[in-house]
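Components:
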Amino acid sequence: MRIEISKGIALQSGTFNAVIAPEKVIITALNSNADLQRFLFLFVCGNYSRILSSIGRTSTNFEVRRAFTAHQLFTILKEASHTIVLVEHDPTMFDGAETMIPPVAGALRDVGREALLILYTPAIDRPFSALVRSADRIFHITSSGDPGSHRNRSARTLRSGCPLPPAQMTLEVS
Amino acid sequence: MWILDSVYRGGVDLWVRDRAGGATTKVRYEYAPPFFLHLPDPHPHHGMIAALESECRAEECTFMTIFGELAGYKVFAGRPVAEAIEQQTQYEAQLFNVDVRIDQRFMAERGIVPCCTESGSRFLPDLSCDLRLMEIRIHDDPVLSSTCSDIDVIFEGTEHLHGKDRDVLASLFPLVAGCDPDVILMPDADTWMPKLQRQARTYGLDMPFSRSGRYRAMSARSYWSYGRMEHKESALIPDGRILIDTEQSFVYREGGLEGVLMAARLSGISPNLASRFTPGTLISSYEVYEAVRRGIAVPFRKSDVEAVRRFSELKEADRGGMMFQPLPGVYENVDEIDFTSLYPSIIVQSNLSPETIGHPERHGFLPAVLAPLLALRIATKQMKKQDSRYAGTDSILKWMLVTCFGYTGYKNAKFGRIEVHEGITGRSRDILMLTKDIAESMGFCVLHGIVDCLWVQGPPAGALKARVEQETGLPTEVEHFDWITFLPQNDGAGSYNRYYGRMSDGSVKVRGIAARRHDTPEYIRNMQRGMLSVMSGAATINGIGAVKDQVTAIYRHAVQDLPGAPAPDLAINRRISRLTYVHRCIEGAAVNAYRNEGVAVAPGMKISYVVRDARKYKVDPVWSTGSFDVPYYRDLLDKAWNEISYAFTSGSSGCGEAAESSAKQKTDDKDRCRHDDNACPLCR
Amino acid sequence: MTGRSFASVRQGVKSTADRWARSSRALKKDDRPYGERLVELAKRHASEAFYGCDDPLEAAVFSVLVELIKEQEQAKQEQTGRDVDP
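Structure:
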């Protein structure tokens, strides 16, 4: 099974994919992708989600589970048995709970073995960087616009955010 | 025994006060309780279990949780071992009673609490105690100064101590030791104590505050509470004597000494700690105490996850309280009907608890535990009307109940589940709706409603109150307004939480406007207060119109006197939530100004500043202010004036009539306010 | 209230109304006041609509339709009143 989340970007099942992209991109992918409706899809987020409110009323088939603490996120990942799992990264999740990053990273890796796992964030931060160390692929999608500006923007994100782990395949798509 | 303080120092020390003689003695108990471990699948962890049994003394046992009995082990070891078990079992292990305060646990297992006689029930509102009370007021600036040169000590009379730091302390310490108070009230105690300790060491003096000579430290930290950053100063807490930082303590500010003692009694926590807790931590502690008292194990980690749900189900469930938007305007003869402690009442009435989700036949832990607290609050709310001595207790109870299940507080609550919260808000919407239906069927017009209260206009409200209480089964309070003004938002639609009005006793109730907001400068607050004071003399809308000139004159004087006003009167007080700002702004400039003067700032701290030049983001801390940006403050003044002048332009409103006047008003307001909806602190 | 996972319906209606306000500006000059009126009607009953609807667009449309029906009925009553009076 493969899912196309953006023009030219197709994700395979049995992979752990990290996606850094503007919210619009992921929201469009969720709203307009008929394939997503057909499969058992789990959306995981923290207390506050940037994406949930923008999901259209027709795409209501999927399931949601929220994690309010890092331990809960760990439990949710352990119990996930869906074909597609999308985790919206919560930057505050690991405040005061940095020790949970390795077990959660491990749980993400385990989920990615069977399912199509996407860990999504609009901007990279330290916990995210640590979590995606064992990702199979990292996709950095910038929004379309003037070629000059979005080149700069993606470079800025990499500089101001945290550096991506070096040994990963990084794809920059505009 | 009447327990004044409790400390765990390898054993539990209870400081017991002898009611007869007034002396306090320390009683020590050896106590080393175990934590509980449950492994859903113990087989892979045999090695670890064997190691625990041999090295830490671990025994097989069964124990109770709110969901039922679990089989596992009791392990006689501390938190580090528990955390190691977590790691080793890759977080499969479920651990209990790991982070319960040991002195609290000791007391809970024996059914005793601080600040209460053994025979008395701790759910009685009476606090009879004759503690020896001392006030220590240090007049030096706690933020800027590291030495004390000017102190007032109040204990059966006032002693003034001033002079050199060393001499002052050399006088203070023997005074405290000699008087030997049970309670010391000291503004900014937590800021001063580390400094006093440092100075005492420098001068070779013995600090007498602790009756054992030893102190506990609570470190300074910033934390999220109720949607904003709070800041706790580091504290040095004495043994055997209560030291209350009257400036920093929310519990003391809201409830006085009675509030602190009641909070301690209910939560099973020493008053020294209780005075430094937020209401959220107090109610959590109360729940933990109750759990231990009932032999229920307290989970270590909050891993009780919500069930998987369909997107559409979650969307429907994830809603807050019901609100009815008002039509802006001024209304006469309005009644406000309020449900007392609505959310806790719903928990109790509807038996909502984590373990009753899907099992309504079970008797829920949360309802059982909250019921006596609720009953006590309902009692004190009535009692305080006759006797103001109960006001402090009532206030603390109110706050504990209000925070007992907050959505954001949920993150730290030991016994909470989001579905319970959703059940509560769902039921609250139905209750407000039912109330509206009853009101309308009885000939009332519903003007406005927010979650747990409704404003209605119509016949006398006594019959409405009776019927609502009968049909909902919940207690209510009714307040009568001779007149009330509901303010508009920028777009002309009614504001949900900005109103002011005159009650039938002539007092003014105010919400959301400048006079009530914490960050309003004193100068502007005084202007608005003066205006409201004049308007409170009017019992009708015509009466308000009659004082229009008088009130307008107050505005004109305020404008005239503004340029010559003392700069400190224009200080804006804000609690900062962050240290770095994305965009350049006044608050960011204020944080930098503090830093430039060498004052440490942390998120959650209160800062006070005056704007010198708004366009150039020049800001001064309140203690070194000179000039101020007159146009900037004139703007704030005008906003505050607009909130009041609206009442004069709006004309009388009944149900449905307000629509016309509000539409007209919309254009006027739009022209007056130039600020962006969200950026302006006085616009909503 | 902070802490919600979904934006409140009221906020959602406000976003919808803001979009309709922008669209109204693109209308012909004579039509613009009607667009502005529509925006006002959409917000009028947003809070109440929230009781039954969790979708902001649905709440906005509900609000507008209720007001339109109200106006229609009021106009009818006035018309009937005028017809009856000689």
